[in-house]
Amino acid sequence: MGENYRLLDVGGIAFDTENPRIRMALTKYGDRLTSERIHFALKSMGTAATGASSYESLRDSIRAMGGISVPITVISRQSGYICIDGNTRLAIYREFIERGADGNWNHIKAVVRDDATQREIEQIRVTAHLVGAREWPPYEKARYLHYLREEKLMDYGDMIQLCGGNRREIERQIDAFHDMNTYYRDVVDDDTAFHIDRYSGFKELQRPAIKDAIFAAGLDLQDFGKWIGDGQIMRLADVRKLPQVLSDPDAKAKFLEGGPRSIEDAIRLVEQRRANGETETKTTLSKATLYQLAEVLGRRIEDLPYSELRALKDQNNAAMRERVGILESLLTGLTGLLADVTE
Amino acid sequence: MSQSDEHKRLVRTMARAIGIRFPGMAPVVDLPTRLGDAVPPLVDGYRPDLYGEDGTSGLVVVGEAETAAGLERRHTYRQLRAFAGRLERRGGGILVLAVPGGRGDRAKTLLRFVAFELGIECAELWVFDGLDFWVWTPLGGGAWRLD
Q: Which of A33, A212, A246, B53 has an alpha carbon within 20 to 30 A of A52's alpha carbon?
């Protein structure tokens, strides 16, 4: 594969429709797709969990530096160039052109891969987006791994060489993608009811105890898809509690017959039973373990009355301000602990 | 940016967008800067971030802004259910859920659950993702369309 470095006309480079953010925008907006919406789609991927915009940080950095330092990567096709790595940087240049920003944004540094094979293109995408700072969303990563394994017949050794990790983790992601499509995507009434943010629930499903618990309860994975689709399981971490819920007849009934978030009521019932079963060894606050306190605290936060929430929000007196301060200190401590144990 | 600052930013962005979408409405937002500033009225025991009523047509718009973390709280779901239920009993109105750009799908998921749980037919459920308004339509099993 030959490559050469060039300064290319921004207008002559197309976005990569295999890039999940671009593909998402194409699907979502259809014939109402505009460049503003493409930029929005690229920008939004950096805001999903934290509210911080990596797009905006990158844009500010590029403007300050007067251009990109790392060239984008394009492939040459009869129709022109296609950007296979650097779609966000390309979008930023286009935004600067549209807004008439100071500077020369009409040309962009690029590595042109002449005669790139499909395998070489996959390698570039994987290296750029399956690991590291510019990772695709988990569902899209899984989709790509599924594509490499099932359609390109790439063996696990090659996939591990490309993406890192281990075979078991890659298998889990591929299986989660398969189950999500089979038991959720393919059964909802229309595409807009399918949300990729449900993916981590299907990843949790791959833990051995979860599927076993579902089958042991006389249920199947179609039911799981329904629980996710209908919102009976809304917090996806609650999938881990399925074995406890399904093995308790009352909790199971509460869960299966309830509406959205019914698993939370079922979990509460299980935990209450557990707490009642421990009445002989009732503990005081000072003797409770960290984890007992954490479970109770979590429930109290969930059940916080609206009036108390408003009072904390308004902080109209010293007592309320002190309470918010206590919670903020707890958050600091907890964040630090989790950072230490998950390094 | 702290969660609180992020929430205020979302409320202001939502208010601006609703002001443009419904000219002449002049909605009230829950961002009082001085004692005595107007705040939205309680709706079924909860105070929304925005409330607007068109004096001519009678259209009511209730707006709620949520950060990514806020969307995951049970309290949020109860609020959204309360607002949607109230509008449904009223015979119509619009509930707008404003969220950060990357959380549009999550917001749609939540409102879809509300729509199915309450059997929403009259109230309109909208999501504002920072750029566009998305509207829930119950027809054909339910779908989201770009406003």
A: A33
**Rounded CA separation B95/B63 (Å):** 6
| A199 → chain B, closest CA residue | B106
Residue B18: both structure tokens together: 């609703």
Nearest-by-Cβ selection for B77 from A29, A51, A261: A261
Q: What are phi and psi of A133, to 5 degrees?
A: -70, -20
Residue with tokens 């996939």: A159
A184-222, pLDDT tens digit by residue? 987 776 665 677 788 999 999 998 899 999 999 999 999
CA pair distance A65, B108, nearest whole angstrom? 38
Size of interface A-B (CB pairs under 8 A): 90
Flag whether residue B41 sits within 8 Å of chain A, measured between CB atoms.
no
What does the radius of gyration of chain A's CA atoms come to, in whole angstroms?
25
- Do the chains contact at A306 and B75, CB–CB below 8 Å? yes
Give yes or no for B140 touching A (CB within 8 A): yes
Alpha-carbon gap, residue A161 to A144, rounded angstroms: 15
Whether the predicted model's global pTM rises above the 0.80 cut: no
Dist CA A208 CA B59 (whole Å): 52
**Dihedral, CA of residue A129, residue A131, residue A136 and residue A137, to nearest 10:** 170
Q: What is the pLDDT of residues A93-151, one digit of tens each?
A: 998 998 899 999 999 999 999 888 887 887 787 777 766 656 677 888 898 889 889 88
Measured between alpha carbons, how far is A276 from A272 in angstroms, rounded to an integer?
Answer: 6
What ipTM goes with this model?
Answer: 0.83
